[in-house]
Amino acid sequence: MRFLPVMLLSFVSVFTLQCTKKTSNEILIGEYGSLTGSEATFGISTNKGIRLAFDEINAAGGLHGKQIKLITLDDQGKAEEAAQAVTRLITQDKVLAVIGEVASTRSLAAAPIAQQYKVPMISPSSTNPKVTEVGDQIFRVCFIDPFQGTVMAKFAMENLKVKKVAILRDVKSDYSMGLADYFTAKVKELGGEVVSDVSYSSGEMNFKAQLTKIKGTAPEAIFIPGYYTEVGLIAKQAKELSINVPLLGGDGWDSSKLSEIGGSAINGHYFSNHYTTESQEPHVVEFINKFKLKYNETPDGLAALGYDAAKILAEAIKVSGEVTSAQVRDSLSKIKDFAGVTGKITIDQNRNAVKSAVVVKVDGRVNRYVTTIAP
Amino acid sequence: MMKSAPLISFVILALMGLMLDQFLNPYLQRTMALVLVNIILAMSLNLVNGYTGQFSLGHAGFMAIGAYTSAYLSTHWVAPAAIVPHLLFFIFYSLVSGCFAAIAGWLVGQPSLRLKGDYLAIVTLGFGEIIRVIILNSSALGGARGYFGIPGPSPISFGGLALNAFYSFYLVAILWVLTCFFVIYRTISSTHGRAFMSIREDEIAADSLGIHTTRVKVKSFVLSSFFAGVAGSLFSHCMNFIAPSTFSMLMSINVVIMVVLGGMGSMTGPILAAVIISVLPEALRPLQELTGQDYRMVIYSLILIVLMLVRPQGLLGHKEIWNFWRKTRVE
Fold first, then answer.
1. Which of A88, A113, A175 should we substitute to test contact with B (largest number of B Cβ atoms within 10 Å)?
2. pLDDT at position B327 over 70
């Protein structure tokens, strides 16, 4: 057992070794994400986007004459690790602001800590409304779930020019209920009519009863704010019942599994999403090219949102008089019409992003860009 | 051991806590809190896996019961702090949580502990998953999103010295760590403990000596589940947020690693291992910051493999930490 004291000693020394020699030439930004674990792809994509953004800024001379230093900590996709990582970033590394996380669960675990220590936190892609409700330090750059209902209602009324719509919602999911409610409200506001509003529970396989009921009311479009598993089946069964109106949905449809399940029946239907690589806007094309150059792959939605989160934070630091957490928080809350790659972003009074969403059309495995809908 | 040992160690630890409270930053305090929770988990599992020789893989399930019970109680049922001191409440929450977990332990143990061999491992594994899936699907407990807004103990001030909320938590936690330690320590040196160990050594022989093996095994299992529930309760108040994904099989395996690494059948071994296993991933974080690469888990696993190769019987084997002190003194 002679090695035990030695081991313990080395252990303690590693633990107390602090590598946060904060020089006055650096602005420390913390990031926590799932770099390992079952959701590692999410965390790695986001991290790539953030790093690209900060590298660009540093190459252009940094902010206030200082370079940005990003400290990334892994949370292994676990909520308790996320809380631990954020505590470390804030109390030990003393970062100015925190970026993270993708999953709402982990953002919710970490947000109270950022709130407690009054350090602003920006979530790139947690869409659950509860995340920013934690407190005035928590922001997000993606839209909240229900907003997609508004977008699709607008799309149906203004682009597809329909007046009578039906809703088929998943009663078991907060996500689906939120989207459906916002959709109904916007349709009524724009002078349309919801002719039928029926529901299913996720996990069901047969939707013919609901679809027959919907068919009886002769809608011109059907809004199905569910997840791809059920949506694929619904599309198939709708085709069998010769319902040939457009089906609409939210980003829950966004999966390569959708066309696998739905087959050809899902082609030609529309759903809303955060971002598309098919966009022709110059700054989006530029981002995609830079990303490809650096990482040799096409950026996905999470990378784009990570990039926007980092860029918005940099913008907030730039316009702040003093580089303090409190000042940056105030500047963040005043972000308006920021041209991000995922749309024009304005932070509203609830610290959520008000931004445009893209509508895409399913065409086999690829999703074709149709239009961008502003809020 | 002296009769007043629990009290003396409580006072010493409480005084040490004052220093921790004043001189450690919140991140290190949080790590410390997790260490205390893991110590209780390791000690309680050691009772079943180490002393009774049964292999349980469902510790995370009991912990989840405790954590959610405590979370639900503390958010739905708060009595006025003016009447009862706030700290007592947290002790009460963990007590109730422990009882719930103990009841669950009894229900699981009663049928499955009649069997011999590896069945218990499979039954408890299944049980842990059932608990997790039930929580995942119940919206009252937050479902997959998790349960948030769990209050921690509020800060107390002590003779004009304003202390952090950490100290309040620390007091409750060390109270339970010591309770767990001394209850298990004294149980294993009593008739009950001898019965536990006789089952570990040879179940048939124990049976022939007139020990009701099933009843004894259930006793050990229930006591172990109780403390797992208490640990869960402490965990929920320390993290202020719990999600079903936390209480997965990995968590159970982590506790088993602590027990095996520390030495099955040693009181202090699992405690030492719990400290190492909780601190090691955190201690390796600077490495990630320096290199930018995440080799944390690779190194962590490597250290575990090396330790098991060097000390296959666990860090302390069947011995206690004080046995080593004495030996060095004689030499």
1. A88
2. no
- Rounded CA gap, B111 and B108, in Å? 6
B306 touches chain A (CB under 8 A): no
CATH 3.40.50.2300: does it fit domain A147-273? yes
- When the pLDDT of each residue in chain B is averaged and rounded to a whole number, the result is 87
Domain layout of chain B by residue ranges = 5-246
pLDDT for A18: 47
Can you give the pLDDT at residue B80?
64
Q: Output the pTM of the full model.
A: 0.83
CA distance to partner chain A, nearest, from residue B254 (Å): 14
What is the average per-residue pLDDT within A257-268?
86
Name A82's Cβ contacts closer than 8 Å, sequence gap at least 6: A32, A75, A100, A101, A106, A107, A109, A110
B201 interfaces chain A, CB cutoff of 8 Å:
no
* Residue B330 in this model has a pLDDT that exceeds 70: no
B243 touches chain A (CB under 8 A): yes
- The tokens of A68 are what? 């940005």
Q: Which of A3, A72, A23 is nearest to A43 (CA)?
A: A72
Chain B residues touching residue A4 (CB < 8 angstroms): 315, 324
Please answer yes or no on whether B26 and A87 come within 8 Å at the CB atom: yes
Q: Which of residues 128-167 of A touch B (CB under 8 A)?
A: 128, 130
Residue B219 touches partner A, C-beta closer than 8 Å: no
Report the complex ipTM: 0.84
Please state the domain extents for chain A.
20-143+282-356, 147-273
CATH homologous superfamily for A20-143+282-356?
Answer: Response regulator (3.40.50.2300)
A20-143+282-356 and A147-273, same CATH topology: yes
A117 neighbourhood in chain B, CB within 8 Å: 26
pLDDT score of A201 more than 60: yes
State the alpha helices, DSSP H only, in chain A: 3-16, 40-59, 79-87, 104-116, 147-154, 174-189, 208-216, 228-240, 257-262, 282-295, 301-319, 325-333
